[in-house]
Amino acid sequence: MIEKILVLGSNGQIGTELVTALRKSYGESNVVACDIRRPDYDIKNSGPFEFVNVLEKDILNNIFQKYKPTQVYLLAALLSATGEQNPKLAWDLNMNGLLNILDLAITYKTAKVYWPSSIAVFGPNSPKDATPQYCVMDPNTVYGISKLAGERWCEYYNQKFGLDVRSIRYPGLISWKAAPGGGTTDYAIHIFHDALTKGSYASFLNAETELPMMYMDDAIRGTIQLMDAESSKISIRSSYNFGGVSFTPEVLAAEIRKHIPDFTLTYKDNDPRQAIANSWPRSIDDSFAQKDWGWKPEFDLSKMTVDMLKNLQSNH
Ligand code: VAH
Known about the structure:
Elements: E1 5-8, H1 13-26, E2 31-35, H2 41-44, E3 49-51, H3 57-67, E4 71-74, H4 80-85, H5 87-107, E5 112-114, E6 117-118, H6 142-161, E7 165-166, E8 168-170, E9 172-174, H7 187-197, E10 200-203, E11 211-215, H8 216-228, E12 240-241, E13 245-247, H9 249-257, E14 264-267, H10 273-278, H11 287-293, H12 301-315
Parallel strand pairs: 1-2, 1-4, 2-3, 4-5, 5-7, 6-8, 8-12, 9-11, 10-14
Antiparallel strand pairs: 11-13
Bound molecules: (3R)-3-hydroxy-L-norvaline.
């Protein structure tokens, strides 16, 4: 069967790289990039693009009617920091965007749906270290609340309607290709750009803030690995914990100094993102992903740092 894939939110930090990876596997003409904003040069000129607002169900219906997708990736969302600046839009986009896609996937018998969750579903009373797949989850950001509710809806549509919907709770994602989109973990991307252009960076998270992170190459590979897995192997239909590597701004700065010895890190106080980061886990137990579909990350902090600096240097 020829796969026909829609990627909604294709211009974002994940979408930009996911579209490229999917087009390599399935052919450029079989992966339709969809976003509310005009794509950058590469995406638009390497395959089909559609202007889509996931809150406009009639436009979405026309896109499903036109392409009859076999797979749909819904990446469009407001992230944690921007979500706190516009809570009602964050809830509307993250929740109703998902419900529109789940309903249309049922109507058009889409074989598989992918929807990203986040470690933001955990909250102040969740275990902080090696946070398990199942535990107390009391998110206190609109982003985290919408992702936790979205996980429940995904499992509901799987159990009630047999929809093959799959999901991963991403940690902070680090990449060099596309700009980050208003997240709390974005410091771990900005620090590399500033290390190269200024030799210094002022972090909005304090020195002790340890968060789970992952290099985008691992996140994309893991996402496609999950989507390619036999359905019978998928035991989690809410969303899989995904670990990666945990570090603080201080640890990251020390790794950068192995390449840029004079790099200096300072700290900005009273940033609202500090409270968000304080509510999240320090590290994640992703044993279910390892057991069910053989997940294994390839990038540790050292390898991630080398790859980020190498690629940004050739881009700057
Ligand atoms: C954010 N990058 O900071 C996202 C992510 C775990 C963090 O969900 O909002």
